[in-house]
Protein backbone atom coordinates (compact mmCIF):
# COMPACT_ATOMS: atom_id res chain seq x y z
CA UNK A 1 0.00 0.00 0.00
CA UNK A 2 1.60 3.24 -1.17
CA UNK A 3 0.31 5.83 1.29
CA UNK A 4 -0.22 9.58 1.08
CA UNK A 5 1.55 10.31 4.35
CA UNK A 6 2.32 9.17 7.86
CA UNK A 7 -1.31 9.35 8.99
CA UNK A 8 -2.46 6.97 6.27
CA UNK A 9 0.49 4.70 7.00
CA UNK A 10 -0.46 4.60 10.69
CA UNK A 11 -4.10 3.95 9.75
CA UNK A 12 -3.13 0.89 7.72
CA UNK A 13 -0.88 -0.42 10.49
CA UNK A 14 -3.43 0.14 13.26
CA UNK A 15 -6.75 -0.70 11.60
CA UNK A 16 -6.13 -2.80 8.50
CA UNK A 17 -3.08 -5.01 9.01
CA UNK A 18 -4.54 -7.34 11.65
CA UNK A 19 -8.02 -7.99 10.20
CA UNK A 20 -6.58 -8.57 6.74
CA UNK A 21 -3.85 -10.86 8.09
CA UNK A 22 -6.63 -13.02 9.54
CA UNK A 23 -7.87 -13.40 5.96
CA UNK A 24 -4.40 -14.38 4.74
CA UNK A 25 -3.68 -10.98 3.16
CA UNK A 26 -0.54 -9.29 4.44
CA UNK A 27 -0.48 -5.52 4.03
CA UNK A 28 2.76 -3.54 3.96
CA UNK A 29 2.15 0.22 4.02
CA UNK A 30 4.90 2.49 2.77
CA UNK A 31 5.28 6.13 1.80
CA UNK A 32 6.02 7.11 -1.77
CA UNK A 33 9.69 7.60 -2.58
CA UNK A 34 12.84 6.65 -0.76
CA UNK A 35 12.82 5.31 2.84
CA UNK A 36 12.66 8.14 5.34
CA UNK A 37 10.66 10.40 3.03
CA UNK A 38 7.52 11.88 4.57
CA UNK A 39 5.33 11.15 1.57
CA UNK A 40 3.26 13.48 -0.57
CA UNK A 41 4.04 14.88 -4.03
CA UNK A 42 2.13 12.24 -5.96
CA UNK A 43 3.41 13.03 -9.41
CA UNK A 44 3.01 10.09 -11.75
CA UNK A 45 6.76 10.18 -12.44
CA UNK A 46 7.45 9.53 -8.74
CA UNK A 47 4.71 6.94 -8.36
CA UNK A 48 5.73 4.84 -11.39
CA UNK A 49 9.08 3.52 -10.07
CA UNK A 50 7.51 2.64 -6.71
CA UNK A 51 4.79 0.58 -8.37
CA UNK A 52 7.25 -0.95 -10.85
CA UNK A 53 9.63 -2.01 -8.07
CA UNK A 54 6.90 -3.63 -6.00
CA UNK A 55 5.22 -5.50 -8.83
CA UNK A 56 8.32 -6.70 -10.67
CA UNK A 57 10.36 -7.70 -7.61
CA UNK A 58 7.74 -10.22 -6.46
CA UNK A 59 5.25 -11.70 -8.92
CA UNK A 60 3.02 -12.82 -6.04
CA UNK A 61 2.75 -9.24 -4.79
CA UNK A 62 -0.15 -6.89 -5.42
CA UNK A 63 0.11 -3.12 -5.08
CA UNK A 64 -2.47 -0.47 -4.24
CA UNK A 65 -2.55 3.24 -3.46
CA UNK A 66 -4.00 5.21 -0.54
CA UNK A 67 -3.90 8.94 -1.28
CA UNK A 68 -6.39 11.73 -1.88
CA UNK A 69 -7.58 13.55 -4.98
CA UNK A 70 -6.98 17.10 -3.81
CA UNK A 71 -3.27 16.55 -3.28
CA UNK A 72 -2.72 15.39 -6.85
CA UNK A 73 -1.01 17.72 -9.34
CA UNK A 74 -2.94 18.74 -12.46
CA UNK A 75 -0.51 16.61 -14.47
CA UNK A 76 -1.74 13.42 -12.81
CA UNK A 77 -3.36 11.03 -15.34
CA UNK A 78 -7.02 11.89 -15.91
CA UNK A 79 -7.30 14.76 -13.43
CA UNK A 80 -7.88 17.64 -15.84
CA UNK A 81 -10.31 15.56 -17.95
CA UNK A 82 -12.79 15.07 -15.10
CA UNK A 83 -16.20 16.72 -15.31
CA UNK A 84 -16.62 18.71 -12.06
CA UNK A 85 -20.36 18.12 -12.21
CA UNK A 86 -20.12 14.33 -12.34
CA UNK A 87 -21.01 12.05 -9.48
CA UNK A 88 -18.15 11.39 -7.09
CA UNK A 89 -18.07 7.68 -7.95
CA UNK A 90 -17.90 8.53 -11.68
CA UNK A 91 -14.97 10.88 -11.15
CA UNK A 92 -13.16 8.33 -8.98
CA UNK A 93 -13.63 5.61 -11.59
CA UNK A 94 -12.43 7.81 -14.44
CA UNK A 95 -9.34 8.91 -12.54
CA UNK A 96 -8.41 5.39 -11.51
CA UNK A 97 -8.97 4.05 -15.03
CA UNK A 98 -6.69 6.76 -16.42
CA UNK A 99 -4.00 5.79 -13.91
CA UNK A 100 -4.24 2.11 -14.86
CA UNK A 101 -4.07 3.00 -18.56
CA UNK A 102 -0.93 5.08 -18.07
CA UNK A 103 0.70 2.37 -15.94
CA UNK A 104 -0.17 -0.29 -18.50
CA UNK A 105 1.54 1.73 -21.22
CA UNK A 106 4.72 1.78 -19.10
CA UNK A 107 4.70 -1.61 -17.37
CA UNK A 108 2.53 -3.87 -19.51
CA UNK A 109 -0.85 -5.46 -18.91
CA UNK A 110 0.50 -8.60 -17.22
CA UNK A 111 2.22 -6.58 -14.49
CA UNK A 112 -0.58 -4.05 -13.97
CA UNK A 113 -3.21 -6.75 -13.43
CA UNK A 114 -1.75 -6.93 -9.90
CA UNK A 115 -2.35 -3.24 -9.29
CA UNK A 116 -5.49 -2.07 -7.45
CA UNK A 117 -5.99 1.68 -7.93
CA UNK A 118 -7.58 3.74 -5.18
CA UNK A 119 -7.80 7.50 -5.01
CA UNK A 120 -9.85 9.00 -2.18
CA UNK A 121 -12.12 11.70 -3.51
CA UNK A 122 -11.78 13.36 -0.10
CA UNK A 123 -9.20 13.45 2.68
CA UNK A 124 -8.36 10.83 5.28
CA UNK A 125 -10.24 12.91 7.86
CA UNK A 126 -13.51 12.35 5.98
CA UNK A 127 -13.48 8.76 7.23
CA UNK A 128 -13.59 10.08 10.80
CA UNK A 129 -17.00 11.67 10.23
CA UNK A 130 -18.44 8.14 10.00
CA UNK A 131 -19.12 8.47 13.74
CA UNK A 132 -18.93 12.09 14.98
CA UNK A 133 -19.50 11.09 18.60
CA UNK A 134 -16.58 8.64 18.71
CA UNK A 135 -14.51 11.01 16.61
CA UNK A 136 -14.83 13.69 19.28
CA UNK A 137 -14.10 11.22 22.07
CA UNK A 138 -11.02 9.87 20.26
CA UNK A 139 -9.67 13.39 19.88
CA UNK A 140 -10.42 14.11 23.56
CA UNK A 141 -12.80 16.87 22.50
CA UNK A 142 -16.23 15.60 23.65
CA UNK A 143 -17.57 19.16 23.56
CA UNK A 144 -17.29 19.06 19.75
CA UNK A 145 -19.73 16.19 19.18
CA UNK A 146 -22.46 18.57 18.05
CA UNK A 147 -20.18 20.48 15.70
CA UNK A 148 -18.84 17.31 14.10
CA UNK A 149 -22.36 15.92 13.80
CA UNK A 150 -23.60 19.09 12.07
CA UNK A 151 -20.85 18.78 9.47
CA UNK A 152 -21.64 15.12 8.85
CA UNK A 153 -25.38 15.80 8.57
CA UNK A 154 -24.82 18.40 5.85
CA UNK A 155 -23.52 15.81 3.37
CA UNK A 156 -24.77 12.67 1.69
CA UNK A 157 -21.93 10.67 3.22
CA UNK A 158 -18.54 11.30 4.85
CA UNK A 159 -16.96 10.77 1.42
CA UNK A 160 -18.80 13.84 0.08
CA UNK A 161 -17.44 16.31 2.64
CA UNK A 162 -14.36 17.42 0.70
CA UNK A 163 -16.20 19.79 -1.63
CA UNK A 164 -13.22 22.14 -2.05
CA UNK A 165 -9.65 22.48 -0.77
CA UNK A 166 -10.74 25.36 1.46
CA UNK A 167 -13.49 23.37 3.18
CA UNK A 168 -11.87 19.94 3.22
CA UNK A 169 -12.41 17.75 6.30
CA UNK A 170 -9.05 18.70 7.81
CA UNK A 171 -9.80 22.41 7.36
CA UNK A 172 -13.15 21.98 9.10
CA UNK A 173 -11.44 20.22 12.00
CA UNK A 174 -8.72 22.87 12.20
CA UNK A 175 -11.41 25.55 12.42
CA UNK A 176 -12.64 23.82 15.58
CA UNK A 177 -9.31 22.59 17.00
CA UNK A 178 -6.53 25.14 16.60
CA UNK A 179 -3.81 22.67 17.61
CA UNK A 180 -5.10 19.72 15.58
CA UNK A 181 -2.32 17.15 15.22
CA UNK A 182 -3.26 14.98 12.25
CA UNK A 183 -1.03 11.92 12.81
CA UNK A 184 -1.82 11.61 16.51
CA UNK A 185 -5.40 12.84 16.82
CA UNK A 186 -6.49 11.37 13.50
CA UNK A 187 -5.18 7.95 14.44
CA UNK A 188 -6.70 8.03 17.94
CA UNK A 189 -10.07 9.02 16.49
CA UNK A 190 -9.87 6.27 13.87
CA UNK A 191 -9.13 3.67 16.54
CA UNK A 192 -12.12 4.88 18.58
CA UNK A 193 -14.46 4.77 15.57
CA UNK A 194 -13.32 1.41 14.25
CA UNK A 195 -13.16 0.00 10.75
CA UNK A 196 -16.71 -1.36 10.60
CA UNK A 197 -18.35 2.05 10.99
CA UNK A 198 -16.14 3.53 8.27
CA UNK A 199 -16.93 0.72 5.87
CA UNK A 200 -20.64 1.08 6.54
CA UNK A 201 -20.72 4.83 5.86
CA UNK A 202 -18.07 5.17 3.11
CA UNK A 203 -19.01 3.23 -0.01
CA UNK A 204 -15.91 3.90 -2.12
CA UNK A 205 -13.59 3.11 0.78
CA UNK A 206 -15.48 -0.12 1.42
CA UNK A 207 -15.41 -1.11 -2.26
CA UNK A 208 -11.62 -0.70 -2.28
CA UNK A 209 -11.23 -2.99 0.73
CA UNK A 210 -13.61 -5.51 -0.83
CA UNK A 211 -11.36 -5.64 -3.90
CA UNK A 212 -8.39 -6.44 -1.69
CA UNK A 213 -10.39 -9.07 0.19
CA UNK A 214 -11.00 -10.96 -3.06
CA UNK A 215 -7.28 -11.80 -3.05
CA UNK A 216 -7.72 -14.10 -0.06
CA UNK A 217 -6.91 -17.72 -0.79
CA UNK A 218 -9.78 -19.99 0.11
Automatic annotation (TrEMBL):
**Which organism is the protein's source?**
Oceanisphaera ostreae
Q: Can you tell which superkingdom this protein's organism belongs to? A: Bacteria
Which InterPro entries does this UniProt record tie to the protein?
Answer: DUF4276 (IPR025455)
State the taxonomy lineage: Bacteria, Pseudomonadati, Pseudomonadota, Gammaproteobacteria, Aeromonadales
| Protein name, UniProt field | DUF4276 family protein
Q: Which Pfam families match?
A: DUF4276
Amino acid sequence: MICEGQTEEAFVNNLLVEPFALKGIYLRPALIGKPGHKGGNFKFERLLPDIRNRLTADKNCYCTTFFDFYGLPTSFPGKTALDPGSQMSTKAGALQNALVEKLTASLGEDVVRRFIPFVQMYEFEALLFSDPQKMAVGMDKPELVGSFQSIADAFESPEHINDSPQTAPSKRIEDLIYDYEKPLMGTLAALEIGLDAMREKCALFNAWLQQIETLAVE
